[in-house]
Specification:
Layout: E1 3-7, E2 11-13, E3 18-25, E4 33-39, E5 46-52, E6 57-60, E7 68-73, E8 78-83, E9 92-99, E10 114-115, E11 119-124
Parallel strand pairs: 2-11
Antiparallel strand pairs: 1-3, 3-8, 4-5, 4-9, 5-6, 7-8, 9-10, 9-11
Amino acid sequence: EVQLQASGGGLVQAGESLRLSCVVSGLKLGDYSIGWFRQAPGKEREGVSCMSSYRQNTFYDDSVKGRFVISTDNDKNTMYLQMTNLEPGDTGVYFCAATGWYGTSCLNDYEYVYWGQGTLVTVSS
């Protein structure tokens, strides 16, 4: 059974940093495209960052460019989202996800097959 378990969320003040982790079991992470998504209260789930492991391409939503970095540790089969200079607009439940292939954009949530439960990030002013 493929499982993704996200952790690292919490309550922080604006300007602070958090690193989210997602431990993956049941598949070799280096063979899959990966993504981080978030859902703010009352809003649709949106793509934050993603990486094509096969093609070695990385993408970010415009709202987080220059502040967030996606990465993997293939030896630990774990993916990360390093978030710096957090803003109140970053508040939401963050989900990690993986898929074998994507068609148009790896920031589209419908491209993904495997999902974690999510971890809550709250950024206060």
